[in-house]
Amino acid sequence: MNTKYSSHWSRREFLGGLAMTGAAAMLGLRPGQGIAAVEPPPETTRLRIHSGKPACWAPMYVAEPLLREEGFTDIQYVFGLGTEVVRMAKEGAIDLSPEFSARSIFNMEHQQHPLKYLSGLHVGCYALIGSERTRSIRDLKGKTVWAGAIKNDGPHIFFSTIVSYVGLDPRTDVNYAWVSKDEAIRLFRDGKIDAFMSFPPGAHELRHKGLGHLLLDTNVDKPWSQYFCCMVTGHEDFINKNPIATRRALRAILKANDIVSRDPKLATRALIANKIIKEADYQHTLPELTHIPYGMWREYNPEDTIRFYALRMRDIGMIKSNPQQFIDQHTDWRFINELKKEFWVKW
After folding, report:
1. Are the C-beta atoms of residues 261 and 294 closer than 8 Å to each other?
2. How far apart are CA 62 and CA 257, in angstroms?
3. What is the pTM of this model?
4. Which of 138, 158, 180, 302 has an alpha carbon within 20 to 30 A of 128's alpha carbon?
5. What CA–CA distance (Å, rounded) separates 6 from 13?
């Protein structure tokens, strides 16, 4: 692996390198797009962003120098996994958070999760890897799969929506191996499980080891490639008290989305600099970030994503709300609507 992109790249060097590219030059912004310069300053200069392990959340880290340009001087990345995120949100410890669409729908309904959807982040990222005994998703009936180590976490919920879409009942038609990722890879290699649900860089790691084949790639396979895998959410109290700050922060994140699309190498370095992935993961993460269609965020209305997953989840008993009820209670689209003209959003 080229150490130029790993061991010799500190967080300070990453931030300096991104600043030198010039955000406007990187994004090809038109002169009239400097709207932020004439807007009122943010109501607060502190911004706390949920930080987690998924490599696909790279735009949240690439956004840091752009957030500083928007007037934030105290930017904190607050690390949390699984149920910790629910606790952090309830305690008001995070202001903005990237979230897996289906998982956050479940958390918002069941745990009074005080976050609201603000916009889409990126399409795709999850992949479903099958063994030689499975040629399609329907072949998983009666077989054992790994869909994460914890029931009702992101991989399991996402997998449930996938199999229900093809007519299987994820509650009764599939067996689950609730084990760690490393143990699941061993079981998959030994032929004891027949499918492996993965987000970056897991799918590339498996293929690099010669294990399995793609049953589903949400980056390209419809209908999954037409909806957001991950979305940007904001704490209800923060966005209500700080609407200008919320809009400015969202603008920076969406700009970062475009940067990741154009320069996945820089994005991978950002993940290493922020210690989200290890240096040794560079070779697996870069292909995944290159493959994810970050630049497609302008194409899809985020509300359609909520409707799609909420309907699937209601059909299999994961939530009780119908899609419109959920949208009315758990979304706030005013900020992305305000930014649509600025970003040439198409929907």
Report:
1. yes
2. 8
3. 0.86
4. 302
5. 11
